[in-house]
Amino acid sequence: MAPSTGSRVALVDDEDHIRETVGFALSKEGYTVASYPDGVTAWEAMQERLPDLAILDITMPRMDGFELCRRLRGVSDELPIIFLTSRDEEFDRVLGLEIGADDYLCKPFSTRELMARVKVLLRRLALIRQRAPQAAESLLDVGDLRLDLQRYQATWKRTAVPLTVTEFQILRALARNPGHVKTRQQLMQEGYPYDAYVSDRTIDSHIKRLRKKFESVDAAFAAIETVHGLGYRYAAG
Question: 177 and 108 in one domain?
Answer without folding.
Answer: no
